[in-house]
């Protein structure tokens, strides 16, 4: 028997899940209940959560969504989410999984006019097919990329020898003249977080609205021993910082910031070189993931680009969405 249930808070979903999406049972950071709970608390606090569970025997599917306005749903995800996907529990069976998602999609037809899911990678085909079968009009559009490096057994020296000549020359030249002290730690302290915020305040980036979220992430991963927090300092002054995590053979690059007054000395690039060397030599990672965004500098460090998709679903029973649906379909054709 197939059953669909809905939860209106991440806390309710946590209680229903028990330990099913905790760190010990869920390899991916972005699929864990801690991730969704922190993301909603710090980044979507004013937006209602809608979490849908479908069950059939031993099989479960969970979709973590938010409702920014009546009749509209979107993925519980933002630019810190490298991927958003339905989360499946139980035996791996593609036919059953498609049936579970279709049941969720049919349930959402009752009170939803439009659903937007981003960023979606491998699950895009399954979602598109299941929602269309349920009666939704669906459009898939490429919306940027995710840059990934697979080491395939290479040492850091072998990897570095294969980087573009301009990058290797830059690091060699800037290292000779560098007065920076580089450090990497797996433990967060109050003093280190103050240094992180100080660098961010002097960076070229816009003010970070989600610093509490990043602090919660760093503290949580520090407690688990998976944090890699790097700094470049000039004497005692923090100049650049990077927030990575390392777990299950994969390094995730969450955030890079540097003091723009020191651009000419390339502290961010020097720190990246040290961070890559550290996780490859000491953590023996197999994969490094630079996350979302098609920044040009990422291609010098990484070797593979994975397309991120946005899925737009429109309820054809609602005449008000026919025009937006047509626009999305045209955008997908010309994009």
Helices and strands in order, then pairings?
Layout: E1 2-7, H1 10-17, H2 33-43, E2 48-56, E3 59-69, E4 72-75, E5 87-89, H3 94-108, E6 114-120, H4 124-134, E7 137-150, H5 156-161, H6 165-177, E8 180-185, H7 190-201, H8 211-224, E9 227-234, E10 237-247, E11 250-258, H9 267-281, E12 287-292, H10 298-301, E13 304-314, H11 322-334
Parallel strand pairs: 4-6, 11-12
Antiparallel strand pairs: 1-2, 2-3, 3-4, 3-5, 6-13, 7-12, 7-13, 8-9, 9-10, 10-11
Give helix and strand order, one letter per element, not per position.
Answer: EHHEEEEHEHEHHEHHEEEHEHEH
In the CATH scheme, the class of the largest domain would be: Alpha Beta
Number of domains: 2
Percent of residues in helices comes to: 25-40%
Total E-strand runs? 13
Overall average pLDDT: 93
Any overview of this molecule?
Helix 2 runs antiparallel to helix 8. This protein has 335 residues and is α+β, with helices and mostly antiparallel strands. Strand 2 and strand 3 form a beta hairpin. The protein is elongated, with a radius of gyration of 22 Å. The chain has 2 domains: 2-144 and 308-334, Aminopeptidase; 153-285, Aminopeptidase. Strands 1, 2, 3, 4, 5, 6, 7, 8, 9, 10, 11, 12 and 13 form a 13-stranded mixed β-sheet that branches. Helix content is 36%, strand content 31%. Residues 177-298 form the BioF2-like acetyltransferase domain. This is CelD-like protein. InterPro entries: Acyl_CoA_acyltransferase, BioF2-like_GNAT_dom. Pfam families: Acetyltransf_6. It comes from Sphingobium chungbukense.
Short account of what is shown:
With 335 residues, the protein is α+β, with helices and mostly antiparallel strands. It has helices spanning 10-17, 33-43, 94-108, 124-134, 156-161, 165-177, 190-201, 211-224, 267-281, 298-301, 322-334; strands spanning 2-7, 48-56, 59-69, 72-75, 87-89, 114-120, 137-150, 180-185, 227-234, 237-247, 250-258, 287-292, 304-314. Helix 1 packs antiparallel against helix 2 (33-43).
